[in-house]
Input
Amino acid sequence: MTLDVARIRQDFPILHQEMNGHPLVYLDNAATTQKPRQVIQALVDYYEGYNANVHRGIHTLAERATEGFEGARVKIARFIGSPTPEQVVFTRNGSEGLNIVAYGWARRRLGPGDVIITSGMEHHSNLIPWQQTALATGATLKFIDLDQDGTLNQESYDRLLSEGGVKLVAFSVASNVLGTINPVTDMVAKAHAAGAKVALDAVQAVPHMPVDVKAWDADFISVAGHKMLGPTGTGFLWGKMDLLEEMEPTYFGGSMISEVHLSGAKWADVPAKFEAGTPNIADFIAFGAAVDYLSAIGMENVYKHEKALTEYAWQKLHAIEGMRTFGPRQPRAGLISFDVEGIHPHDMSAVLNEYGVAIRVGHHCAQPLMEILDVPATNRASFYIYNTMEEVDRLVDALLHAKEFFGYVA
Ligand SMILES: Cc1ncc(COP(=O)(O)O)c(C=O)c1O
Output
């Protein structure tokens, strides 16, 4: 084990409870992760010690709140290798960042004849904003083919780029269903060579692996804080400074202006122009604590831990008769979607829950991918820093119980 998981688990109060008479096994981390005491304490410290609005008052509480809030931006910037903290725009979740790009950049620059390339493996968050952009602008949406093993077909991508008119390429770094990790730097370089900008959905990547946004060289990157130990209601959009500067804001009102007259207004500098109104102060300060927590562990160690767990789970799952997994074996993000012959995922999840095992079932906000895979839904187990090999064994035991229950004993 690369991580001292027993130590880490002590920091997560929620994990130490029983569910239906069994110790809880939480394997729904791709939906949202649990929060360590340090993150919860940061919320308590703020509300008990220095709750005040940011960027406004000059009293001590307001200064401390502003320091904590902007300090979180600095921590996040360092965590992802951003040249400046200002390039980190705070959002509510992973979806919002992509919408800010769609409204503030794409809708103002695209028109009939222009092309947006995306893929069939995307979460709805990285599909619907582009569908809507295409509808609003007359641009065309094109999709990279998916290979049988759940990877993006690079020849299909090259072909779409060569057809011309491509203004934007939007794809996920890691798929929340297939676990596929896409060849980001290569795909970004090709898009740029074709004159297109790139928006990355890095929601399932940044929480799980070392990331340097400079190396990716994408133009926009959207991330969710609640999937990396941070509170719900946190996320961020990272962008190249020149693009953020030339973009229009999506929301208007307080805090996002430099000058206002009855006849009009001028916008504040980046990132303030994208952050109208009182922000989610406490939660971003706590998100900063989450980033501290992950930084102390080291993202290389996080990645190795999840890789070991996923490989172990892969072997164990494939020993079960009637098991079908989706996506490539390696490289893969720390999650496995699967189907067990004859047992609908919703029934499966209900039985697993009886054994204290929490997984996600359904379409995972990727309905087009379900159509491509020709399944109504899948089961998905997703891992994080506090999960253990024993928990994988518990998952497998519960799956075998489910098979027994539904009469498909191997
Ligand atoms: C790949 C991917 N993109 C985007 C999202 C959307 O993130 P959020 O729910 O924070 O908006 C998710 C959430 O599951 C995801 O897995």
Observations:
- The domain at 41-295 is CATH 3.40.640.10 (Aspartate Aminotransferase; domain 2).
- The chain has two domains: 5-29+299-405, 41-295.
